[in-house]
Amino acid sequence: MSLLDVIGPVMIGPSSSHTAGACRLALLARHLLLERPVEVRFVLHGSFAKTAQGHGTDLALVGGLLGFAPDDARIRDAFAEAEAAGLHYGFTTEDLGDVHPNSVRIELRSASEEVTMTGSSLGAGLVKVFAVNGIETYVSGSYDTLLILHRDRPGVIAQAASVIAEGGVNIATIFSRRRNRGGQALMAMELEAPLKPHVIEYLRQVSYTKWLRMLPAVMEQHLPASSILERNAEQK
Fold first, then answer.
1. Which of 119, 163, 161, 147 minimizes the C-alpha distance to 209?
2. Residue 71 pLDDT more than 60?
């Protein structure tokens, strides 16, 4: 555990859970789209719903969706930045069930696709994504993470893991969940290094892949938002 884990992340305040964590969740959601988002609805749960404006959660969520890191001063003007970028946004509240009080469902749309992500801010800037497009998953934001929506059939996870190993990258964690037997399944692999573009493209083209995304590590406080976006763009 580092000193930053104890005293909290470098950020635009006032709260590591309500601002830094919210920003990181939105950053992860942003990378579920291959194109820039044009419309988003934030569905706030529990404490997020009660204190969104007072703790800057609303600004942090919009800022993260624009690609701003938690320490980016532009978060203070996120609404104006969103207007300038042509991003339409809205907020609503809903009971999302038995989840952490600081939780949000982010419903995103670009010019050609729609995606939904649900996650929680756990405190001290830590986050957990637990659903993408309605399928249970696990993403901590501490690693570059490969998400593959695929047909549920024997050997798919082993095949993907083999390709990643041949690319010289170690897998830190694997989480897999399926909608139903033989239907769609979603695997999430947290990786100890970014994948090379040709490896990502190969995995995208294999027969079992229906949808693939690479999410960047967002827990690196020293990494500027522009670097996060640029690195992810290089991997697409």
1. 147
2. yes
